[in-house]
Amino acid sequence: MSMKILVGLDGSPCGYEALRQAAMLSDESDLLVLYFSPPEVRLRDHGGDPQWVQRAREALAEQIFKQARDQLPQARRDNVKTVVDNQPPQIGLPATAEAEAVDWMAVGARGLGPLKRVLLGSVSTAVVHTARVPVLVARSPKGVASQAARGFTALLAYDESPAAEAAVKLLGRLHWPEHATGYVMTVIESLLAGDVPDWLREAARDAQSEAMARAWVEEHEEEKRQKLAMLQSLQQRLPQPFASQQPIVAEGHAAKAILDVAEGQHIDLIVMGARGLGPLGRLLIGSTSDKVLHHAGCSVLIVRQPEG
What are phi and psi of 227, to 5 degrees? Predict the structure, then answer.
């Protein structure tokens, strides 16, 4: 079934990068809904004449949408709908997503461009927190050419929550570029999370403590084996790009673990659920999502926990 994808534009390179990634991850039959909220216009020669102001806003929107279409593959340029809004984008984008019943949306990570509109920072963060649909926060790869040469790489951070399951379903509906590679990971607490207890420091001199320590280590290793088996089972439900790579069971703080894997594997897109459970929980209104969103060197797709 075809999808509808909302793309927030502001005239900046990051806005057009959001469009590029939305087109790449969707099919030719999917409808791209292009959104633009023109900034306040002041015309010195015509004062505050509402007609001239409206014409200026329309001309600006027409130019933005023309540039957007020009950057799309030829086959995608006709299956496009445009929306010009008078609301601030942090309000208008979530409202338009609902009104248009889109399946997901994309915004740029930083919109500092000719219009000086920050589509992330205030706008993107607000959209991620308020939109009821998945939101892709797009960052430009270090080089589009190099990405094309090595292939597109995605990372799913999974924690068995309803939000993570919603992310799995969305991944199955996306279009994956040729030679795409997908990794799956989860995070567990480190063996020595928090302060090392006094009894462990005495383990070398206490045979009973040594036995307890060994049992603790065995329990931790069993948890890792269980999580690895869970991820291997998950791979069978994911699109083909995620089927062949070894699953990753990381240890430690969730945000840092996700960011470390993303950097080490040269990830182009991190996919994670919002309002999850366990170490990957505390998402969206919490430290994990905020740190991943603001510190990742790549795009991030946040999928909200289903309502109800």
Answer: -65, -35
Sign of CA dihedral 1, 270, 109, 255: positive
* Phi, psi angles (nearest 5°) of residue 303: -115, 120
- Contact, 14 vs 113, CB < 8 A? yes
Domains and CATH numbers, the chain: 1-140 (3.40.50.620), 142-308 (3.40.50.620)
Q: Is 287 helix (H, G, I), strand (E, B) or coil?
A: helix
Distance CA 33, CA 80 (A): 6
- Angle in degrees, CA 100, 72, 137, rounded to 5: 60
**Would you write out the chain's pLDDT as a tens digit for each of its 308 residues?**
899 999 999 988 889 999 999 999 999 999 999 999 987 766 555 555 677 777 878 888 999 999 999 999 999 999 999 999 989 999 999 999 999 999 999 999 875 443 433 344 568 888 988 899 999 999 987 655 555 556 899 999 999 989 899 999 999 999 999 889 999 999 998 866 555 556 555 555 566 666 666 776 788 889 999 999 999 999 999 999 999 899 999 999 999 999 999 999 999 999 998 764 445 544 444 467 778 888 899 999 999 887 76
For the chain, the farthest-separated pair of C-alpha atoms sits apart, in whole angstroms, at 89
Please give the structure tokens belonging to residue 210.
């040594």
